[in-house]
Structures are given as C-alpha cells and as structure tokens.
Design brief:
The chain is mainly β. It is 7% helix and 58% strand. The protein has a single domain, classed as Lipid/polyisoprenoid-binding, YceI-like (Lipocalin).
C-alpha cells in the first residue's frame, strides 16, 4: 500500500499532444498527417520517469491528413484497416534515463503485428499551467518500415517509380497531466 502513495500517475493530454507521421510521396515530397484521438498513461515513482510504465492507445479511425479521400484510403484495408483494427497500442518494457534523454523500449502493435521498438525521448521539463495543473513535456522521433506492420499497399509506375515510401517517420509532441 505504501508503494501506491509514492506512485505518480500522468495522463496524456490529448489536446496538447500530437503524433505526426510523414511518408515520401513520389520519393520527392512528404505527405503528413496525424492521429486526432489518443489516450494513455505514464505511471511511476521516480521524478525523472526512469521507473515509469507507459501505455498508449491511438485510434486509427482518427487519422487526418487534410484530404478526406486520402484519409478514407488510409482507414481502408490497404493501410490501417480501421474497422478490423481500431487501435494502435504501445506498452513500454524498459526506460533508461541519460541527462535530458530518455531511452524507451516497448511493444508497438499495429494491426495484428507486435514489434519491439526503441526510441529516444527528449524531456522538456515539468511546469504548472495557468490553472495550477502540473504538466510534463516530451518530444520524440522514430522511423520505421511500414511493411514490418503489414502495411504494404503501393503503386508502381514508369518501371521504377514508387508512389509511397516504405519508411515512415513519426514525430510526437507529448504533454502529460499529473493526476496523482
């Protein structure tokens, strides 16, 4: 019971958190978008987040690129298959703190594929907001091959042309709200 007294629980603030993705289109420019609905928690007792457990859920139907026809295609079985796989999840397995960098390992599940991933998060600090809530901020980047998660649709043209790159870059700006 004493262990719970020292445990800090933080919720991901969906209003101030954005998970953006970029993929090359025609291999010369990027198509960008983000997921508008997500939720998650970070729980641990260390002030530097070193013993924290991270749980994140992203709702695939919330994908947004600004082009409705593209968004519908991304929700289709060609990409995320949002009807069959309504969520993308991440659960941390290990966290290591080195100065302002936090190395995070965990299991990312997209569609029916689970993969261990590792990324560095930059800890931006803890501050009170104007309402007296305690907030923590982080930035992180990761790149991965979308084919590793069974997202393989593409179009080929002119014998060498590829419509969409296999590599996808993610950038996340994450703000946490301290609950306890």
């Amino acid at each position: 019971m004493e262990e719970n007294k020292n445990k800090n629980t933080w919720a991901i603030d969906p209003v101030h958190t954005k998970i953006r993705f970029d993929a090359k289109y025609l291999m010369i420019t990027s198509v960008s978008g983000w997921f508008r609905e997500l939720e998650g928690t970070v729980a641990g007792s260390a002030d530097d987040f070193s013993d924290s457990e991270i749980s994140l859920t992203i709702y695939t139907n919330s994908i947004f690129t600004g082009i409705e026809e593209r968004d519908e295609h991304l929700r289709s079985p060609d990409f995320f298959d949002a009807k069959k796989y309504p969520t993308i999840t991440f659960r941390s397995t290990a966290i290591t703190v080195q100065e302002n960098a936090i190395k995070v390992k965990g299991i990312l599940t997209v569609k029916d594929i689970k993969q261990e991933i590792e990324f560095d998060a930059k800890f931006l600090g803890i501050v009170p907001d104007p309402r007296g809530n305690i907030k923590a901020g982080f930035e992180m980047d990761i790149a991965f091959d979308r084919k590793d998660f069974n997202i393989t649709w593409n179009e080929f043209f002119d014998k060498q042309g590829i419509l969409i790159s296999d590599q996808v870059k993610l950038h996340a700006d994450v703000q946490l709200l301290k609950l306890s």
